[in-house]
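Schema walk-through. Below, the input block comes first and the output block second. Nothing else is stored per chain. Lengths vary across the set, and this one has 108 residues.
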Amino acid sequence: MSKKSNRFSPEVRERAVRMVQDHRGEYASLWAAVESIAPKIGCVPQTLHEWVRKQEIDTGLRDGVTSEERDRIKALERENKELRRANEILKLASAFFAQAELDRRLKS
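--- output ---
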């Protein structure tokens, strides 16, 4: 699975989110503000709306898993997968050496 490229720098994302927040009161809804501002920065409204949601979660304005927590979960899942793989290798090696020891004793 390839990682999708980020077309927009973090600075552009922050600026776009700030624009939505600053001008939110001028529109009937958050979505209306997003639809108005997204074309100005060259992205689709869904993308900008996602950035706004992530920022609200990260600052505690909205419930959800923060970016920091999500990164930590991913790291722990990778570590868990690696440890399971290592454990499986150790089990196989243990069984192999136990069988070899049994075979050695039977030949003696």
